[in-house]
Amino acid sequence: MFKFKKLLSYDNHPNIIIYNCDNINSLLNIISNKKCNSNIYNGINYYSNDTYNIFDTKNINSKNILDFKSFINQIIKKNYNFTKKDYIIIKNLEYNNKIQHFLFSSIERCKYKFLFFTNSNHIYHKLQSICVNIRYKKIIDTKNILIKNRIVDNYLCKTININKLKELSYILSCLNLSFHIILKILLEDIIDKFEITNDKKYKCIRFLCDIQYKYINGYNKIFYYEYVFLNLYNILFNT
């Protein structure tokens, strides 16, 4: 937040790409706290006030992309007010690669400041190169991954999906959370399944208690997560 505010204090600051921002409105209020109006141009929804126009690329598709480009060009061609900074703001930049290429060419021929919001690092490299890139630390909700996505239902089912287990193991290893916290969440999910017999639940508890010591002394964390899921699968479905 401080870095963004300081950057805006310069009259001729560069264009900006912001990654993984969970509170976009708070940043927009720094630019202008005036109320935005909801508008529609040829079926494209956008918001605007006297300081900026906001577009969401989720609303741009193959049917209206030409209208979007035409409208951006119209905005750019308007008489620019040199006494204040005007912005074109694009949310969810990662949703359309064609738009990224178009915006790169647009930036080079206008006086407007562009502000982009994205949740992905896969942004057109030339566009990144002409912008200041501000990255927020992405917050991952472990319980959401393990419980709301129903880990047992989706990953530990009778038809095993090795690729899904490998994907989940990689995600968990990147979280850098205490192993016993993840095991606790996983175990709670297993215990809550009434269709799993008490005998199998007891075997899962015993196995997870044993594996924790091995994990602490191991180096390849991804391997241990894969090992956990495969063994739980065997306990739940092959015994």
What layout of secondary structure does this protein have?
Elements: H1 2-8, E1 15-19, H2 24-31, E2 37-41, E3 44-48, E4 52-56, H3 65-77, E5 87-91, H4 97-107, E6 113-118, H5 125-129, E7 131-135, H6 142-148, H7 151-155, H8 162-175, H9 179-191, H10 198-216, H11 221-237
Parallel strand pairs: 1-6, 1-7, 4-5, 5-6
Antiparallel strand pairs: 2-3, 3-4
**H/E element string?**
HEHEEEHEHEHEHHHHHH
The overall average pLDDT, rounded, is 82
CATH architectural designation of the largest domain: 3-Layer(aba) Sandwich
Low-confidence stretches: none
**Helical residues, percent:** 40-55%
- The total of beta strands comes to 7
How many separate structural domains? 2
Distance between the termini: 54 Å
Output the number of helix runs.
Answer: 11
Give the strand order, joined by hyphens, for the main sheet: 2-3-4-5-6-1-7
Largest sheet: 7 strands, mixed
Instruction: Based on Cα principal axes, name the global outline.
Output: elongated
CATH class of the largest domain: Alpha Beta
Could you state the CATH homologous superfamily of the largest domain?
Answer: P-loop containing nucleotide triphosphate hydrolases
Structural class: alpha/beta
